[in-house]
Amino acid sequence: MQLICEYQSPEYGFRYTHSVNNRPNMSDFKLHNHNEFQELLIFLDGDAEFRVEGTTYFLRPYDIVVTQNTEMHMICHRSPSRYERIVVSLDNNFFVKNDCEEFKEIFTSRPLGV
Questions:
Q1: Which Gene3D superfamilies match (predicted)?
Q2: Strands (DSSP E) found in the chain
């Protein structure tokens, strides 16, 4: 993996990562969740699908995937083509810290996997 840009702000409770895998290895991408944070994935390039809680979404460039902290998810590469993405991780207390609690509903007001 090549890290293009990374920025973290503990004060505001988020992390931004822009990275590329020129030849992604499926063994590097396992089913997981993030108990400590919500996640936004901005898919920029590749041949992949996103699996979350038993639902599969085929990804196209500039798709944005929103995952709750408890959702089991993974990226699945359909070919070894270049994979580029931006990941924004928001701590569970991000919305309180930044006085924007109404936006947490974007992550939490839907069934898992949808």
A1: Jelly Rolls (2.60.120.10)
A2: 2-9, 14-21, 37-45, 48-52, 55-58, 63-67, 73-77, 83-91
